[in-house]
Design goal:
Blueprint (H helix, E strand, L loop, with lengths): L1 E7 L4 E8 L4 E5 L6 H9 L3 E6 L11 H8 L2 E5 L9 E3 L4 E4 L2 E7 L8 E7 L6 E7 L2 E2 L2 E2 L7 H19 L7 E4 L17 E2 H7 L1 H6 L5 H9 L9 H10 L13 E2 L1 H9 L3 E4 L3 H6 L6 E2 L6 H8 L6 E4 L5 H11 L6 E5 L2 H7 L8 E3 L1 H8 L6 E4 L3 H6 L6 E2 L18 E4 L4 H12 L5 E4 L3 H6 L15
Parallel strand pairs: 3-4, 4-5, 5-6, 10-13, 15-19, 16-17, 16-18, 18-19, 20-24, 21-22, 21-23, 23-24
Antiparallel strand pairs: 1-2, 2-3, 7-8, 8-9, 9-10, 11-12, 13-14
């Protein structure tokens, strides 16, 4: 049996190809939005994609299942409760099908989402027993998929359903069965996911702390508490992904379109009409000089997540950057979170062309931890806004720092004082730079960000505070 996984680092998304080289067939599981990687891999291996499987309706990215099924002629399979509004095969507990020598059995596995299923796969050339389990968002490597993504009112009931799923559909499998999840390290669909993309039932039974609690007959509440407390903040775009995937995302073809080049003056006019300029450059370059009203979301593996988190949907976007090689990756990431139709173009020639055209620029302040300590000791001490996740803030933060996650700023501007300087801070500078640009765009004039972070602050010997006694998931 051929097994091939793909990882999207910023989303923590894992997709899988299972193949039978002798029969020339393949199955793709939980494909991403841009599906050319699967088409190319199948062509290179001379395989025909017979089935596209989804373990659940995804909350964290736009699915490529509809497109891949249409391009390949494959059958699209998903749990019956998904109620997709386009052609597919609804899968129910006990359903089975074959692709070459691969025998796939559907097991209902609600919890992460109500329609969730897992797929047990046997290689008939070797045995009729399952060799691997495609666990989607149920059992992860070192963690368990969270159950609060469809609303806090569902969190506890879904957690109890997840417990039953783990006890029956998942840990009912033999210890030697390979575990292939859909959510890997970096995914916001749980916390504590290991960086290893696969595992085994036996290893997770012994070493997955949260999952082990599900096997405790005596204390279901201990599992529910361990699963739900300390989960990361949910990005705003998650709310749009499930209905998008249920309705069926529009076809985009194999190669996403690159953004069309626009002259700087045309971009200035678009911005005046409400378009948002997204600066892909290094945060330091953005701080030194940038297009007025632009926000900083540097190109890289986290671009798509932050674009979906802090930019309102349907707003026209113009990109500004320097590296031509980054354009396709940026457009792909935008599409994965539902923003491919929002990008109207890019600044021809990048920021240097903007400056050469004599157009106005702005700047943000940038501080080291030593400079921040000096300013905090002065008469006009700034308000430090810690923009990390709640659990990070609780473990250690600058004394007196206000906690507002970078993805929550737009909704909580009223909590930020306008009569004092502001300094944003995170762990390494990335989120702080994004947050500082958002505050500038929102009309805060005296904004700086710390180019290092809380770990550097601690290493320098400056004092920290910890937060204890946070309320539980209830």
């Amino acid at each position: 049996m051929l097994v091939r996984q793909w990882l999207i680092e910023g989303l923590g998304h894992l997709s899988t190809m299972l193949g039978d080289d002798d029969a020339g067939t393949a199955v793709i599981v939980d494909p991403r939005r841009d599906v050319d990687v699967y088409v190319d891999e199948a062509a290179d291996r001379d395989l025909r994609i017979t089935h596209v499987l989804e373990t659940h309706l995804h909350n964290d990215y736009v699915s490529g299942a509809r497109e891949l099924a249409a391009l390949s002629g494959a059958q699209h399979v998903i749990g019956a409760g998904a109620d997709l509004r386009y052609e597919h095969r609804p899968a129910r507990d006990g359903d089975a099908f074959r692709s070459g020598s691969l025998e796939v059995t559907v097991l209902e596995a609600p919890g992460h989402t109500p329609e969730h299923v897992v797929y047990a796969v046997a290689d008939a050339k070797r045995a009729g027993e399952p060799a691997l389990l495609l666990t989607g968002g149920s059992l992860l490597v070192g963690a368990v998929g969270r159950t609060d993504l469809l609303g806090v009112e569902h969190a506890v009931p879904f957690a109890h359903a997840m417990r039953e799923t783990l006890r029956t559909a998942v840990f009912g499998q033999p210890d030697y069965v390979t575990v292939l999840p859909t959510h890997g390290a970096g995914s916001l669909c749980s916390t504590g996911i290991a960086s290893t993309p696969s595992s085994t039932i036996g290893y997770e039974r012994r070493h997955n702390g949260v999952a082990r609690l599900a096997l405790d007959d005596a204390d279901a509440e201990a599992f529910v508490h361990a699963l739900l407390v300390g989960q990361p903040t949910v990005p705003a775009y998650f709310a749009r992904m499930r209905p998008t995937n249920q309705a069926g995302p529009r076809p985009i073809g194999l190669a996403p379109m690159l953004p069309r080049p626009l002259e700087p003056a045309a971009v200035r006019d678009l911005a005046a009409d409400g378009a948002l300029v997204v600066d892909l450059r290094d945060p330091v370059e953005h701080a030194l000089a940038h297009v007025p009203g632009s926000i900083s979301i540097p190109a890289g593996s986290s671009f798509g997540t932050w674009l979906g988190w802090v930019v309102e949907p349907d707003r026209p976007l113009v990109l500004i950057g320097e590296e031509r090689a980054a354009w396709q990756d940026v457009v792909r990431q935008a599409g994965r979170v539902g923003f491919e139709d929002s990008i109207v173009g890019r600044v021809r020639g990048g920021f240097e062309a903007w400056r050469a055209a004599g157009l106005r620029t702005e700047s943000n302040g940038r501080l080291s931890v030593d400079e921040l300590a000096g300013r905090l000791a002065g008469a006009d001490a700034p308000v430090v806004i810690d923009v990390r996740q709640e659990a990070e803030y609780d473990r250690a933060h600058v004394p007196g720092a206000l906690h507002l996650g970078a993805g929550e700023l737009a909704a909580r501007l009223a909590e930020i004082p306008r009569d004092r300087p502001l300094v944003t801070m995170c762990a390494s500078g990335y989120r702080a730079s994004v947050a500082a640009s958002l505050l500038r765009q929102a009309g805060f004039d005296d904004v700086a960000w710390v180019a290092e972070g809380v770990p550097s602050w601690r290493r320098a010997g400056f004092p920290i505070e910890r937060t204890r006694g946070r309320p539980s998931y209830r």
